[in-house]
Amino acid sequence: MPRRFLKKILPKPHHIQGHKLLRVFGDRLMDPRLWAVHRRAVTGAFGVGLAICFIPLPVHTLVAGLIALTWRLNVPAIYGTIFLVNNPLTMVPIYYLAYRVGALLLGTPPQHFAFHLSWQWLQYGLGPLWQPFLVGCLVCSLVAGLAGWCVLEFVWRWEVRRRYRTRHLEAL
C-alpha cells in the first residue's frame, strides 16, 4: 500500500485534538500508534472495519472507536472502512446478504417480508427472521473481516516487494 498516498489523505492528529467533541478522550487519542501508517495497524483496522460493518445496530462508530483505542489500530483506516462500506446506499444489500447467508446456513427457506415501522411488526413480523439474520451477520462479519485483512496484507506486502525490487534494479 502506498504510504505516501495514505499519509497525504489522512487527517493529522493535531487537527483532531482541537475538536471539542473528542476532548473527552484526552491524550489517549493522541497516541502515535493510532495514527501511524504501518502495515499492521492499517491492515488490522481494515479487517476489523469490515467485520464491524455487519453489526445490525447503529453503533458502528462507537464500536470502531473502542476497538481502535484498545487494539491500537489506525483510527482513520477503521472509520474510512466503515463509512465506505456501510452507508445508506449499501446498508440494505449488506443486511439482505447476511439474512440470505443465515437462512442458507440454518436450512430455512428465505421468507418475503415487508418492513413496517411499528411495535406490532417488531413483535410479530421480525420473529421468523431474527435467527437467520443474526447468524448471517456473525458469519459474514467473520468472513469479511478475515478476508479483508488477508487480502490487504497480501497487497501491502506485494507492493513493498515490488518497490524494493524496482529500487534494487535501478541501483544496478
Uncertain stretches of 5 or more adjacent residues: none
| Span of the ends, CA to CA | 25 Å
Portion of residues in helices?
55-70%
Q: Can you count the helices?
A: 8
Radius of gyration: 20 Å
What is the strand content?
A: under 5%
Structural class: mainly alpha
Extended strand count: 0
Number of domains: 1
Run of helices and strands: HHHHHHHH
Descriptive notes:
With 172 residues, the chain is mostly helical. The protein has one domain (3-171). Helix content is 66%, strand content 0%. The longest helix has 42 residues, at 130-171.
Brief summary:
With 172 residues, this protein is an all-alpha fold.
Features:
172 residues, mainly alpha, 66% helix, 0% strand
Topology:
Elements: H1 3-9, H2 13-17, H3 39-52, H4 60-71, H5 75-85, H6 91-106, H7 119-125, H8 130-171
